[in-house]
Every structure is written in C-alpha cells, then in structure tokens.
Amino acid sequence: MIMKLFSSLALLALLTLLLPRPARADDPLIPMEDFFRNPEQSGFQLSPNGEYISFMKPWERRMNIFIQKIGAEEAVRVTSATERDIPAYFWSGNERIVYLQDRGGDENYRLYTVSTDGAESRELTPFENTRVTIIDSLEEQDDFILIGMNRRDQRLFDVYRLNLETGELTPLEENPGDIAGWMTDHDGKLRVAVRSDGVNTSLLYRDKEDEPFRNILTTDFRESVSPLFFTFDNTKLYVASNLERDKSAIFVFNPRTVEHEELLFEHPDVDVSSLFRSRKRKVITGTGFTTDRFRYHFFDEERAALQKELEERLPGDEVVVASMSRDETKVLVYAGSDRTRGTYFFFDRETKDFRKLAELAPWLPKERMAPMTPVSYVSRDGLTIHGYLTLPPGKEPKNLPVLIHPHGGPWVRDGWGFDPQVQFLTSRGLAVLQMNFRGSTGYGRAFWEAGFKEWGRSMQDDVTDGVLWLVEQGIADPKRVGIYGASYGGYAVLAGLAFTPDLYACGVDYVGVSNIFTLLETIPPYWELGRQMLYEKIGHPEKDKELLKAASPVFHADRITAPLFVAQGANDPRVKKAESDQIVEALRSRGIEVEYMVKENEGHGFRNEENRFDFYRAMERFLATHLGSLSEQR
Asked: Does the active-site annotation cover 540?
C-alpha cells in the first residue's frame, strides 16, 4: 500500500501532533475573500533568454499579463482583459507573448499575440464557435506555432501552421474524422497521431511529414501507449504505457518494430506518466509520480544536484523547477506546500544569484493554515481508498462537523497541496475529507476500471464508506456531515443526498450532473470522438437505460430531504445549465429547501473574482446554518 492504514488510536495521535497552533478566542476570522481573491502575482514564466519574467497580476479585477526585466522594480502590463481572466499564455521568442481567451466561459478559446512592450496586440483566430488548441509552441521557431482548430467541423481539430508575424494560417493536416490528438518531433514536424473510434485507440506514425500516416498499433482504450515525446534523434518515442500491465510505466518505444525496447521507470503502487528532459544537453533527466504526494526520481546527476541545491535553500517546501532559460543557466523555481499557496524564486546557476520574486498569497498566514494529512480506509468490498483529511486548526479530531469533498472528473485524482477551498472550510471549523474513490486515475488500470458503469453505485459507496470511517474513528459528528463537490463531485453530492438520505445534513452542488441521459445528449461537439468510450465508462443510454435511470439523482429527487445549495454557470459547455435546472425544479416542487445561484457570464466553474466571492459567501452562510461553524462557536 502507498499509505499504511492507521488504527483509530494511531490516527488520532498523529492528527493531534499535526495540529497547527490552537486558535485563540481573540483571533480574527480570516476573511473569506482572502482565500479566493486573485493572487498577488501568479503564472510566472521565464523568457527564452532568461532576462525577463512574465506573470499574471490583477488589473481591473482580471488577471492580465505583465513583463519585468530580472532585477528591475517596475513591470509593464501588456494585456488589458476586463471581461475575463486570461487563462493561459506562453513566450514565443523573446519579443512576443501568445495567449488564449474565451468568452463568458464558453471554452471556445481564441488566440492572441502581444509584443513584450505591449505596443502591438492582435487577435489571430477571430472565428465564431471555434476552439483553438496548441499542438506545438515550436520553441526553436520564434515566428511560428502549430495549432488545432475545429473551424471546419466543430467535432474535429485540423492542424495549421500559424505565422505569428503575419497572421497567415497554413493548413497542415486535415482531420479525416477520427484523430483525437497530434504530436510533433523535435524539429516541429507532425509525425504522430492518435486515432479513436471511442473504444479502440490507434497509434499512427510516419517517418517524414510529407508521407501518409500508417497505423502501427491498435488497442482497446483501457490499454494505452501514450507518446510523450521523441528520442533526441527523432527515431523512437518515449511513452507512458500500461500495455499488458496494470500500472503505467515509462518505456522507449520503437515505432518501426512496434516494441517496448527499454523500461525506464515503473512504480509498484501508482502510474508513472511524467518524463523530464534537458533540451540543451539532449538527455532524459528524470521522472515524477504521485503517491501520497508528488515524488521525483532522477536519472541525471546534474538535474539531481540542482534539485538538491534548491531543496536545501527552501527546506520543508515542495520545490518545482517551473522553467529554464534556453541555455539552462537561469531557473524559475516554485516552492509551496499544503499550507501556503507558494512563492516563486529566480536562480542563476552560474552566479548563484537567488532571489524571491513573489509570494502568491502573502495575506494568508501559514501558521494558521491546516495540514493536509494522507489517510486511507478500506471499502465495504475490500478496496483500499486513499485520500486526504484536513482538520480545523486548533480543534481536537473528535466529534467535528465534517464536509465530504469528492473530486470532479471523475477520471482524475486528488493530490497533496494547497487548496484554498479546503483551507477556507477548515478555517470555519469544518473537517474536510477528500477521497480518491474507485475510478480515480493514477492507481492503475484495475482500480480505474472498477469504476466503470458504477456512478451512484460502488463509486458512491466509496464516498459513503469514507463518512462511516470518519464516524468510526470518532472524528465526525454523524449529525453534522455535509457534502460538497463540483462537476462529477456535484453529481456525487446529489447522489449522496438521494441514495443515502440519512447520511448528510446538507449538500452543495457546484456545476454538477443530475441526469446522466441529458449529460450524454449534450456533450460538447469536440468530445464526439469519445462518445462510445463514455458509454463504456458511464453506460449506454439505451442498452443501459435502467442502470442510468437508477443512477441519475433527478429521478430519485423524492428521496432527497436535506437542504441543498446549487451553483451553475449559464454558459457551461460540459454540464449544461439544464442539469441544475432539473434538480432544482424537482426539489422545489416538493417544498425542499434549495438555494440556486446562476452566473450569466460563467461556464464550468466561476473564474471571475466577484462571482467566486458571491458563491463562497453564500456557501459559508449555508454551511454555517446546517453544520455550524468555528465563528459561531467562539
């Protein structure tokens, strides 16, 4: 096991030792806004020459891009977004920034470019109902990038070479109707494609860009050979593969012989899918994997020495090399933990200049944040479920009000680190349990597949068993347990209230699914290639009609008695507003208390700061009413 199952006494003793300093009666309550306000600065990146840094910073309450020379006091704002935060950007050469932005949360991202002095700004993909993806930023070709666009057919992404200087779009590869992904070699040539019919996945390969792709390997979607990048001579592939094995591992894969030639790294308990490289020295430097928290394994002495030096400078923190200059002498470093949003540093490997750039949330005192403790429990059918328990500061782990917080996805996993939602909730006197129920990724194929067609069934049982485990440990007050989640986590909230109505005192559903039939009917067009796979993982609306009806909370709303708070973005392309409308209408028609918040300028989750404030302010009032809070207990 990754985490040893604690006995009741051992767990209570450990949690007591990990408590931050006790809260005092005269401690002011940390304002809700401090947890959810935009960071002071974030999203740091280093220019290719290592002379400048870029970062996101609030302007007009929106996260915009700023450029600053290393060592200078002033920064230049180069974007002027006022409607929505800029979600993603990158450097293209030393004189240009490229960024993406959607409208109202519709996730139809358009691409923009701006000079690093802010003087020249252009929209490069001004197309309606079109989503842009970045296929290759072409680090060695400053004026070009490769993008995918579903302009011709909203279900499919064609490949274009985009001239960032002139704006010229050159079609490079038209999607024949079944390509789910593309990959280039180190020269920026399009050499790999992934074909999918929703159930079977094929790896396509070609030796040269002017040759046709050929199918070299087809597997059921449960098995995958996922290309990470080419070997440095552009002849073979590094892949993360679970072919004929349970846990994904890193291999060298020969596309000509269609064989795994060398196993680079595997872990007995978890999947491994990360691989790090030095572009300058053309060596593989290491890999990373997540057990209770993220861990490194280095192959390269130089990279291992750099990590050691940084961790000695920043003891106790989780230290990440965020980026390097092209010559790899300048390093952008992030250091964080479960109790701090983190800090960025600049490090010159030649001069040993080491300087702090910015703390992301200096207004949150680390000593008042709560440690996130890895835990595990055994489900009713014998599976070990791993998760994280965070206790309210200064409180004994006994008879506490608890909020169960299942993750979205559902095919992802929770990990260790700073979570503003969790810290906010614990600051209000609630213990928070997050669990990686079956179906979560990272624990191997068998654990992932154990969740197939188990929405509302054994996946939900794993959540329920977490509640029962907390009660057995004496940590949870069984009369004060609530549940909160977003997306699939929102579904788990509704399922918990409907299928175990006596377990929860209340629930908060954030952009969650209430009707699996309508969810499957309204998936975004660019998910169409994965429809058959969704049927395999969730259920077919005709063949599994009874299964899906039994698992859809809207059809069992008559069993829900606990108060519910629902929040929804009107423009959500993944979980449509109708999902929330249905459950709210079904409950209100029976006189069940439902608070409903809809934001007209949001999508799948609230990005704008004022909307986040509205949501968490309402959530705080709701939970205080139904579970009690630290502020009330003082």
From this structure: no
pLDDT of residue 198: 86
Residue 487 a catalytic site member: yes
- Residue 209's CB: how many other CB atoms inside 10 A? 14
> Is 458 part of the annotated catalytic residue set?
no
464: phi then psi, degrees, rounded to nearest 5: -60, -45
Q: Please tell me which residue in 572, 580, 626, 629 is annotated as part of the active site.
A: 572
pLDDT tens-place string over residues 256-279 = 999 999 999 999 999 999 999 999
We report the CATH number of the domain holding residue 572 as: 3.40.50.1820
CATH number at residue 72: 2.120.10.30
Residues 204 and 8: their CA atoms lie apart, in Å, by 52
CA distances from 609 to 8, 103, 258, 426, 559 (A): 41, 16, 50, 21, 35
Decide which of 177, 192, 215 is a domain's last residue: 177
Q: Which residues of the chain have pLDDT under 70?
A: 1-26, 629-634
Its domain, for residue 172, covers 41-177
- pTM score: 0.91
Give the end of a domain, one of 159, 177, 195.
177
pLDDT for 629 equals: 59
List the catalytic residue out of 379, 487, 514, 629: 487
pLDDT tens for each residue of 282-304: 999 999 999 999 999 999 999 99
